[in-house]
Amino acid sequence: RVAERLVKIVEVHGPRPSAQKRYEKLYPIFKNAYKALVPIYEQIASLK
């Protein structure tokens, strides 16, 4: 994936069970945002 080439993962945090309902609402929004940004990520990657 394009984003994996652009971002270095330094630290990973696991989900908090107490926030599950919020995650369930936010995750579809995140997925849509990511898909919409893929062309922009590709443009950025092509600048290297």
Automatic annotation (TrEMBL):
This is Uncharacterized protein.
